[in-house]
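Bumping with the actual sequence this time:
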Amino acid sequence: MPTSTLRIALAQLNLFVGDVSGNTQRVLDAAARARDELKADLVLMPELSLSGYPPEDLLFHTGLRRQVESALKRVREETRGIAAMVGYPEYADGAIYNAATVVRDGAQLANYRKQELPNYKVFDEKRYFKHGNAAQIIELNGIRIGLLICEDIWEPRPAVAAKAAGAQLLVVINGSPYSLGYQDRRESVVRDRVRDTALPVVYVNLLGGQDELVFDGGSFVMNAAGQVVQRVAPFVERLTPVDIDLIDGKAVPRSAHIEPSLSEEASVYGALVLGVRDYVEKHRFPGVVLGLSGGVDSALTLAIAVDALGADRVHVVMMPSRYTSQMSLDDAALQARTLGVRYDVISIEGMFEATLGALQDVFTGREPDTTEENIQARIRGVLLMAISNKTGRMLVTTGNKSEMAVGYATLYGDMNGGFAPIKDCSKMLVYRLANYRNAISPADTKAIPQRVIDRPPSAELRPDQKDSDSLPPYEVLDAILELFIEDDLSVDEITARGFDRATVGRVLDMVKRNEYKRRQAPPGVRISDRAFGRDWRYPITSGYRTR
């Protein structure tokens, strides 16, 4: 029989970078609910709860410091009848620490400074924070609790130090962003720390979209045997109780609901929907507008937008030219009707003719080439931006990662926009996501017409154009790109995997040549281990040769 029980509430919250007053209210509301509804003794908030994560260079603003210090005082004074662990940036001794305070009834029970600062991939915490160097233990209901913050659980030292300081239970608050397969990786790392310490771990994670990053939640509890005994659903806010019994001097978490793991497609789709919703909502756009071409990329983007925002906040425009097929017109119209969005058709033929006429003397003696294709894309970009400006709706772009990698997109044309939902999705993943979205559609309908998925991809910017005219088959292209972008392999190493050397060299050269385009592209949801954006830092001007 347990000698005592501790109830912890996991506050898997969607917070807002820089909105200190709003975040403070969310923290206080969660603490009050945890106390009144869950009868919890302790509530765990995510990493840097008060500032939001990651606050980046906002941390250097004296105004943010004043707001955080005022918020901290308010949280300490207004958190009553329950202890709360709240993340915040601590300004002290001429430095900034990624810290967490534990407060209750007007008093501070502990203050912990993060010891391990990540400085890889999307993280650059050493730019901002100073390392903490000491374990912190609090005791509640007879259970000694070791406090940790995010990266602390990825290295042995902080957890081992907490155990040495007398901890019977480890709690870790996190701002851990989503990428495909990352939940399994988190749980594997926590299992390593459990082996190191023989202590159970309670893990709470941040929720929500922040620029390119999506924080997926997925909070969980692991017992001292390394078994997950409770897991919270990802991509949704939750306030979840966790019961810890003290039995023979050991903290033992009770088993509770374990949310099943999602398939890869369901997981990525959830991240894309959440990322789009939060980007639009947090920027206070009334909705979005996008170009619907009849192809699979724009079709998937439309489905994501509708699932994120609702059909009434999505406006799609088909902009046919002389090269647009009847199939594209029919399929775009069908999808717009199926999803119930506003659908307009605006021909670009007149503008295209006028532009060619204006350039006729300059182009005399030169054969048509990609110039005329790019003119069409840029005309469409002008129309969509005009609608965006007039209505206030944000323009979303529809390009995928394969296209962004090799520059198969038009700067100031189809790259126009404020956000790129599928920017980090390879073409083959786009097809998988399209089929997944259809699979979860009502039985009598499909969100994306099957013909859109089945037809050969084409930009329809010249007669009988196919993507395969300019690019290797996407099955080959995507495999090469993954080896180069995510694994940093050379031409020789990729060729050794069975790919044609000339094709590999050509693809890698295209990636290198088009860095200038990617640098000007809008942000998009990061779903891979190496997305174009904050964790891709290649020079535009470079003499490096990939061969």
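The tokens above came from a reply further down the thread. The chain is about 35% helix and 20% strand.
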